[in-house]
């Protein structure tokens, strides 16, 4: 669990705003539409590679160009919940009208443009692409679309994101990983539902099958005997078909299972509420009954031993608690986080 300093920044300089936004999110170009009366404020918190931010900005445009993408080290999805004002999102030759209460998704791996002709108040969440269930191809079907309050899951996602953005202390302390996990899972469910509704019959069948497969794997991560043959039987497809589906996503069944197990173990090791549990018990609960095999695998994937990872993560959590008890979020240009 990476607990980084909070973002708290206000400026009347569009160039300073561009620097902060590019450092906090991904490299971007910002153009002022406010006739020289630009003003912007951002507050935010990053945890477990997920960045939650609340922005209040005068009219402006944002551009993500191919050159900026080529210079980026990591790629993310961004979800914007507009609270006040209106906007337009352009990506993949589509245009979406952004209205208060709507949720829009865009992919930092491809160029996009945002135009806000009015002052806005918005919540923006940025997260690694592999944290949600739909594949990049399926997310492409819903980029630059507006998921409004008429969507049932938007009505669940919007209040949670709004409440988090009111008080980022919700992203600190023992329950922080659970809050982040809940928010990302709801966003993933919203994107999956939207993708299913907006794809053709063939793609819809393919996405539905992948979601069933991933759900089965996640429900059975603790089973050390989980394997491709058993997964294929459970979802009524051949093992060859299962391997082909994961190959299309650029991974393998075994690699995806390993990644999900290690991510779950990292969450538990970093969670103060699990600090009393032996590492071997946590590993076994997620499908690694062989302690030596788990330790080797964990070190290969993270570069550190499980015990060292836990010590560092719990110390970060303790320091975060000390900072919270010692005062408010710090402000100024030096208090930016860099997630992209």
TrEMBL record:
Q: Where is the HTH araC/xylS-type domain?
A: 211-312
Extract the ranges annotated as region (Disordered).
312-340
The question of whether Secreted is a record keyword is answered with: no
- SMART domains xrefs: HTH_ARAC
The source's domain of life comes to: Bacteria
Q: Which keywords label this protein?
A: DNA-binding, Transcription, Transcription regulation
Cross-referenced InterPro entries: AraC-bd_2, AraC_XylS_family_regulators, Homeodomain-like_sf, HTH_AraC, HTH_AraC-typ_CS, Tscrpt_reg_AraC-type_HTH
UniProt KW DNA-binding keyword: yes
Query: Basic and acidic residues: which segments have biased composition?
Result: 312-333
Q: Write down what this protein is called.
A: Helix-turn-helix domain-containing protein
Q: Which organism is it from?
A: Saccharopolyspora ipomoeae
């Amino acid at each position: 669990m990476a607990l980084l300093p909070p973002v708290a920044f206000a400026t009347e300089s569009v160039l300073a705003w561009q620097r902060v936004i590019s450092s906090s999110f991904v490299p971007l170009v910002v153009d002022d539409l406010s006739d020289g009366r630009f003003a912007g404020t951002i507050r935010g918190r990053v945890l477990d590679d997920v960045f939650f931010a609340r922005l209040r900005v005068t009219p402006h445009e944002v551009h993500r160009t191919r050159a900026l993408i080529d210079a980026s080290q990591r790629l993310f999805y961004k979800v914007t919940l507009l609270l006040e004002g209106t906007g337009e999102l352009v990506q993949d030759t589509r245009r979406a009208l952004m209205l208060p209460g709507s949720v829009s998704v865009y992919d930092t791996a491809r160029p996009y443009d945002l135009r806000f002709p009015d002052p806005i108040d918005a919540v923006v969440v940025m997260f690694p692409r592999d944290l949600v269930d739909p594949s990049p191809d399926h997310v492409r079907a819903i980029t630059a679309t507006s998921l409004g309050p008429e969507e049932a899951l938007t009505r669940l996602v919007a209040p949670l994101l709004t409440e988090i953005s009111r008080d980022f202390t919700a992203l600190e302390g023992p329950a922080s990983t659970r809050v982040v996990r809940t928010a990302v899972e709801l966003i993933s469910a919203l994107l999956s539902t939207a993708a299913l509704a907006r794809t053709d019959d063939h793609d819809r069948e393919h996405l539905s099958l992948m979601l069933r497969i991933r759900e089965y794997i996640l429900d059975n991560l603790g089973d050390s005997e989980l394997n491709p043959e058993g997964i294929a039987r459970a979802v009524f497809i051949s093992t060859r078909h299962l391997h082909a589906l994961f190959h299309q996503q650029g991974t393998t069944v075994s690699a995806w299972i390993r990644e999900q197990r290690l991510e779950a173990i990292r969450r538990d090791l970093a969670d103060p509420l699990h600090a009393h549990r032996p590492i071997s018990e946590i590993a076994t609960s997620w499908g690694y009954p062989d302690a030596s095999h788990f330790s080797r695998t964990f070190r290969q994937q993270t570069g550190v031993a499980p015990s060292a990872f836990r010590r560092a993560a719990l110390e970060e959590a303790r320091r975060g608690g000390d900072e919270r008890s010692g005062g408010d979020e710090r402000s100024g240009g030096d208090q930016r986080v860099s997630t992209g």
